[in-house]
Amino acid sequence: MRDFSFAESQADGVAEVALSGDLDMSATFRLEPALDRLLSSGQVGELVLDLGGLAFLDSSGLGLLLATYERSRDAGTAMSIVGPSPEIQRVFRLAGVEGVLPLR
To answer: Domain total for the chain?
Structure first.
């Protein structure tokens, strides 16, 4: 099990959140408030989630990504997911969300 961490950066209305480690249930409790804060700030026109550093994603982490996508649409904020490893992409495929989540 790898420790989870995330780093935020903002520039010109784009917020990027780089995730690393294991996105499991305990990590979602730390990440969700930060994502909600960004989406409710009114200063973010685009939210980019960089999954390049994720080693593991469980169902609660996947649920958070889906919920964040819905919240971003409701807030009028574009969202994209970048850099998922082949292992994380496989989770998306197996869960049937490859065509739902905004991967680029």
So the answer is: 1
pLDDT in tens, 9-50: 999 999 999 999 999 999 999 999 999 999 999 999 999 999
Entry pTM:
0.95
On the CB side of 35, how many CA atoms lie within 13 Å of its CA?
A: 26
Categorize the per-residue pLDDT at 71 as very low, low, confident or very high, splitting at 50, 70 and 90. Answer: very high
User: 100 in a domain, yes or no?
Assistant: no
CATH number at residue 46: 3.30.750.24
Does a structural domain hold residue 102? no
User: Range of 81's domain?
Assistant: 5-95
